[in-house]
Design goal:
The protein is α/β, with parallel strands linked by helices and about 230 residues long. It has five helices and twelve strands. Bound molecules: flavin-adenine dinucleotide.
Length: about 230
Amino acid sequence: MITQSLSTLLERNEIAPQTYQYFFEKPDNFDFIAGQYAFLDFTSPVNRDEKPSMRAMSIASAPCEDRLMFVMRDSDSAFKKNMRAMQVGDELLIKCPLGHVAIPENLHQPVTFIIAGVGITPVRSMLKQEEHIRSFRPIIVIYSNKTRADIALREDLEKISLDHYKTVYTLTREEGEWSGEKGRIDAEMITRNVDDITNQMYYVVGTGEFITAMQGVLTELNVPKEKIIFDNFG
Ligand SMILES: Cc1cc2nc3c(=O)[nH]c(=O)nc-3n(C[C@H](O)[C@H](O)[C@H](O)COP(=O)(O)OP(=O)(O)OC[C@H]3O[C@@H](n4cnc5c(N)ncnc54)[C@H](O)[C@@H]3O)c2cc1C
């Protein structure tokens, strides 16, 4: 059931350039599945523009965690200005849960996440929940960012304790030393890092442009359409 609750801001951190992490109180009886999203809105927004006052945001925390986490890139939109203006103790309207993105219940199904930038948010939730249920499925996260500094939630990803899990970072504009992958995600990069390519369930999360590019890459690799879930951030 979709509910709308007021929730209090507990903490805010800048975790990458222009990228903010927000922790909110989890309202009572707040149910969601890892991978789902919420609409965040203000009861009386101070800043307004021609766009609606609310935005869709993936829930970056897992259902097993005590607080709600959201991570978002900053911009000059009225919504982001209102987010920046929030003080600890202020309230936000959270409409939830929404969305169909969820990891398969069958733990024998290997999963590959193909992610750009802040698209890591629903993945963090799903990984944390997999850790909670002591999942044994193989999981690979291929995570693209412009530079090393832009990698959001890296510490969280590296603390995930699962038996068959790895994150492959790729940087598209890093000039300095870097031992991981470099360049955009393509068929060769996926082939290098993923075993049994056509047996994976793929989750592709990012902006529309990234989704379109990855659609092409997965088609090139002969991955059947029913094995791909897209989470388009717009
Ligand atoms: C299911 C779902 C989950 C999402 N989860 C997250 C998440 O976890 N974190 C997150 O950061 N975002 C997430 N998003 C995206 C989020 O809803 C916003 O669209 C995004 O954060 C941009 O919002 P904004 O207010 O900064 O920009 P908006 O004002 O909404 O603008 C959207 C885009 O249009 C461009 N734009 C705006 N104005 C102009 C202009 N005048 N000329 C040209 N271009 C312009 C902006 O650069 C931006 O790329 C999610 C979206 C969906 C659908």
